[in-house]
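We treat protein structure as text, and this decision shapes the records that our systems exchange. The tokens are whole numbers drawn from a learned vocabulary of local backbone shapes. One such record is reproduced below, unchanged from the form in which we store it:
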Amino acid sequence: MSTSTAQSPETPAPAGQKSPSALNLRFLSPQQHAVIAAAARYEGVSMQNYILSAAYARATAVEQRFLEAFRASMSHSGAAFACSTDDVDGG
């Protein structure tokens, strides 16, 4: 028998409390909150989904920039090593 008071994710939160799995949507600026709320309404999604989607889009954009730079580096390195390797090997 457990004496823990922690709620499982399936247990609904008591009245007046948020679900333990809910995203905390506190904003320092009321204007920021209003702009994000309006954008979420425009997209037809919850603020939580809007924020998570934006974060995912930003992360994947950073990943794509990294991969593009990596491919360019690989191409540059490959070209440098392809130049006259016989001279280095003494052949």
Observations:
- DSSP finds three helices and no strands in the chain.
- The two ends are 78 Å apart (CA to CA).
- Residues 1-11 have pLDDT under 50 and may be disordered.
- The CA atoms of residues 23 and 48 lie 7 Å apart.
